[in-house]
Specification:
Blueprint: E1 2-4, E2 7-9, H1 11-22, H2 28-38, H3 41-55, H4 64-76, E3 80-83, H5 91-94, E4 102-107, E5 116-120, H6 127-142, E6 146-149, H7 155-166, E7 169-173, H8 186-194, E8 198-201, H9 214-224, E9 227-230, H10 238-248, E10 252-255, H11 266-273, E11 277-278, H12 282-288, H13 322-331, E12 337-338, H14 339-346, H15 350-362, E13 366-369, E14 373-376, H16 378-383
Parallel strand pairs: 5-6, 5-9, 6-7, 7-8, 9-10, 10-11
Antiparallel strand pairs: 1-2, 3-4, 4-8, 12-14, 13-14
Length: 384
C-alpha cells in the first residue's frame, strides 16, 4: 500500500492517478469527472483509449514507466505525492473545483493543515517593502499561521525568511521540485523543507518554471490561504492576478499602503480603494481573518478500489459523432460559456454533452473551466 497521510492508496491506483494527471489533454476538471464517473483512475485509464477511438484522433496515455520513475525520483529526494481528496492534501485547496489532482511535496505535511495566509508582492521590492514583508511573515508565523508565498525574489523571499524565524512557511513553485526558481533560492527552498515548512509543486520533476506555469502557481497560493496580503505591486503585476484569484476563491484581501510616488505601491493602493483591508501590521490581518471553512472532499473512493467488471461499463452509450461535436463547437467561443447553456441550445442530454466535451478536450479543442464553463482553446479559436 502507498501511505499518503491517513489513507492507504493501493500502489496501482497511485500510479494510475499520476498517469491520468500527467496525460496531455486531461485537465483538473476532466480528471475529476473521469474519477467520479469511473470510480478509480485505474478504471478511467482503461476507458480512455476507447473514448479517444470514438473521435478517431491520436491519443497517448502517460506511460506507466515514466510515472513510476517520477514517483521513485521523488522518494529518493525525500519528497512525496499528494492526491486530491486524500489527506494530507491541503484542505482549502481541495475545495476548489480546479484543484490540482496531484501535488508533489517536499517537507512536513502537517504544515498543510495549519491556517494559512499568503504574502505576495513585487520582485523588485523596495528595502522598506522587504522589511514589512519580513516583519509580517515573522509575526503571522508566531501567531501559529503558515505563511504562503511563491519563493520569488523580493517580497516572497522576505515573507519566507520572516516566517522561518518564528514558525512555518509554505512555498509554491511553478516548476518541478528539482527546478527551484530563481536558482539562487535553492538553499532557501531546502531550508523551508528542512525547518518544518513545505514546498509544493504541481509540475512534474524536470519541468522548468516557464511563464505559462505561473498563473497556476498563483492560483494555488491564493487557494491555500484564508487571506492574501499584497505588500507591493505595480499595476498589471502577477501579485494583482493573485489578488483577483483570491477574491474569486472567496478569500479575504489585504494590502499594505505605500507612497503615491512609488509605482510599486500603486497596485496595493488601488486594492485598498477597492475595499481591501488596509494593513500595517499582523494585527490588521488577524482581526479580519476568518476561521477555516469546512474542508470538502473532491473525490470519495469506492468501497473496493478495483472491480473486475468496471472496465466493461466505462464507455457511455451517448451520441458523440462528428455532427454533434461540430454542433457543440459552433456554440463555444473564446469567451467562456456555461455548459448548461450549451446543453439548452443543443437540445442534447447532460450525458451526451459531457461525453462530447470530454472528446473535445482530449482532442485539445476546448478547455473545461471552473464554474461548469467551457471555452475554445487558442488553437481552435485560430482554426475556426
Amino acid at each position: 500500500m502507498t501511505r499518503d497521510g491517513d489513507r492507504d492508496l493501493p500502489p496501482a491506483e497511485a500510479i494510475a492517478r499520476l498517469r491520468l494527471a500527467r496525460t496531455e489533454g486531461i485537465g483538473p476538471l476532466t480528471f475529476g469527472r473521469l474519477l467520479e464517473r469511473h470510480g478509480t483512475a485505474t478504471a478511467a485509464l482503461a476507458a480512455l483509449p476507447r473514448l479517444a477511438a470514438r473521435r478517431g484522433a491520436p491519443f497517448a496515455l502517460h506511460p506507466e514507466s515514466e510515472a513510476r520513475r517520477e514517483m521513485e525520483a521523488l522518494h529518493r529526494m525525500g519528497a512525496r505525492l499528494l492526491f486530491a481528496g486524500l489527506p494530507p492534501y491541503p484542505p482549502l485547496l481541495a475545495m476548489q473545483e480546479d484543484a490540482p489532482p496531484v501535488l508533489a511535496l517536499l517537507g512536513d505535511p502537517t504544515t498543510l493543515s495549519l491556517r494559512a495566509v499568503a504574502l505576495v508582492g513585487a520582485r523588485n521590492a523596495s528595502a522598506a517593502g522587504r522589511r514589512i514583508a519580513e516583519d509580517l511573515g515573522e509575526s503571522l508565523a508566531a501567531a501559529g499561521l503558515a505563511v504562503v508565498s511563491g519563493l520569488a525574489r523580493g517580497i516572497d523571499a522576505a515573507a519566507h525568511l520572516g516566517a522561518l524565524r518564528k514558525g512555518r512557511t509554505i512555498a509554491c513553485i511553478a516548476g518541478g521540485l528539482d527546478e527551484p526558481y530563481p536558482p539562487e533560492h535553492a538553499r532557501l527552498q531546502a531550508r523551508i523543507a528542512d525547518e518544518g515548512g513545505a514546498v509544493l509543486a504541481e509540475a512534474p520533476l524536470g519541468t522548468a518554471p516557464l511563464a505559462r506555469h505561473f498563473p497556476r502557481r498563483n492560483r494555488i497560493v491564493a487557494a491555500l490561504s484564508l487571506g492574501v496580503v499584497v505588500v507591493e505591486a505595480a499595476p498589471r503585476s502577477g501579485s494583482l492576478i493573485t489578488a483577483r484569484l483570491a477574491l474569486e476563491a472567496g478569500r479575504e484581501l489585504f494590502a499594505v499602503p505605500g507612497s503615491p510616488l512609488d509605482p510599486r505601491a500603486r497596485g496595493a493602493n488601488d486594492l485598498i480603494r477597492q475595499g481591501a483591508h488596509l494593513t500595517e501590521s499582523a494585527e490588521d490581518v488577524l482581526a479580519h481573518l476568518p476561521e477555516a471553512p469546512r474542508p470538502a472532499r473532491l473525490f470519495t473512493p469506492p468501497p473496493a478500489w478495483e472491480s473486475a467488471d468496471a472496465a466493461e461499463e466505462l464507455v457511455p452509450s451517448v451520441p458523440s459523432t462528428p455532427e454533434t461535436s461540430s454542433q457543440v463547437l459552433d456554440l463555444i467561443g473564446g469567451s467562456p460559456i456555461a455548459v448548461d447553456e450549451v446543453m439548452r441550445r443543443c437540445h442534447l442530454s447532460p450525458s451526451a454533452i459531457q461525453a462530447i466535451l470530454l472528446d473535445l478536450e482530449l482532442a485539445g479543442r476546448v478547455e473545461l473551466l471552473p464554474g461548469n464553463r467551457v471555452a475554445l482553446t487558442g488553437r481552435d479559436q485560430n482554426g475556426r
